[in-house]
């Protein structure tokens, strides 16, 4: 093969990579223009408050599709080879499955939290049992439930009616990481103490009976 032919092919490959890189950068820049605004405040009772500004996602997706779609006048160098196209499809299929599994896991986790709050925490609070400190036992679990519900909501909004290739869920975690850290720091900090309290309650027959009744309602 002549040196000129080799150089020509190398230039085509380099150009292809550069164009792919530019398209990905363009996508991220366009995405950031419509970033979701998430603010948090952790009050004295450790409850997290989140607000999210809404954008016209339909118009945004249309503009993004236009910018990401290769134009007719693009050179042949932009066209993927069959092998590259097959590999890309495999990667996108795997990515789509991972995102779906992540969202389903969050749904299951949120459902468990809702059951715990509804069937255990709230009934114990309503009973106002002497010597049973519900707040120390369950810490800020209501705030954990609240932030988990918000996370799931943002994940679903980022993926509903959006083409799999255009779904960007990493931005969701970056936006909500502050409130997540604040709330889970409190929960984790009190975890060992709560476990010790539970063990002490299980030694008292009356308190153990109340706890067992709540656990049975979960089953």
How would you characterize the overall build of this protein?
- GO terms for molecular function: guanyl-nucleotide exchange factor activity.
- It comes from Colobus angolensis palliatus (Peters' Angolan colobus).
- InterPro entries: DBL_dom_sf (IPR035899), DH_dom (IPR000219), Dynamin-Rho_GEF (IPR051492).
- The chain has 219 residues and is mainly alpha-helical.
- The chain has a domain at 86-217: Dbl homology (DH) domain (Dbl Homology Domain, Chain A).
- It has helices spanning 3-33, 57-68, 82-127, 134-138, 141-159, 170-189, 191-201, 205-218, and strands at 38-42, 48-52.
- The N and C termini lie far apart (73 Å).
- The model is unreliable at 29-56 and 67-77 (pLDDT under 50).
Short description:
The chain is about 70% helix and about 5% strand.
| Distance N to C terminus | 73 Å
Order of helices and strands: HEEHHHHHHH
- For the residues shown, what is the average pLDDT? 76
Using the coordinates above, name the CATH class of the domain at 86-217: Mainly Alpha
Radius of gyration: 26 Å
Q: The CATH topology of the domain at 86-217 is what?
A: Dbl Homology Domain, Chain A
**What is the count of helical runs?**
8
Low-pLDDT residue intervals, each spanning 5 or more residues: 29-56, 67-77
Q: How much helicity do the residues have? A: over 70%
Largest sheet composition: 2 strands, antiparallel
Beta-strand level of the residues, as a percent range? under 5%
SS-based class: mainly alpha
CATH architecture of the domain at 86-217: Up-down Bundle
Looking at the structure, what is the overall shape?
elongated
Biggest sheet, spatial arrangement of strands: 1-2
Number of strands: 2
GO molecular function: guanyl-nucleotide exchange factor activity
Pfam families: RhoGEF
Biased composition (Polar residues): 37-52
InterPro entries: DBL_dom_sf, DH_dom, Dynamin-Rho_GEF
